[in-house]
Hints:
The chain is an alpha+beta fold. Helices cover 26% and strands 29% of the residues. It has two helices and six strands, in the order E-E-E-E-E-H-E-H. It has a six-stranded antiparallel β-sheet with strand order 1-2-3-4-5-6. Strand 2 (8-13) and strand 3 form a beta hairpin. The longest helix is centred in the middle third of the chain and has 16 residues, at 42-57. It is elongated, with a radius of gyration of 15 Å. The model is unreliable at 1-6 (pLDDT under 50).
Amino acid sequence: MASDAKGGSCVHFGEGHVVLRVRDLFLVFSRWNRNNVALLNKTQIVSVLDLYASFRSVNPRRRERPPAPFEFEFEAEGDDAIRRFADAGGDVARLEDGFSA
Length: 101
């Protein structure tokens, strides 16, 4: 877990998404589309990871069982998610530069 924020940690930094954490809140945002941001609690993000593991376990080359998109619950999205994360003590300063280093 990389400490990248004064008020929390950067728990995932990948090609397409960044996940920030403060206490039991997780801010997930797309580095490709700044409008794709969601705030999840611990239970919700564990559920997303389980659903994603199932999604990834399907072979996309098998026509009889193609991967399917999945829906998940979240606390907030967009600017409301960012505001609520910051209000909880999370550092959102790096969101402006998209974590370009």
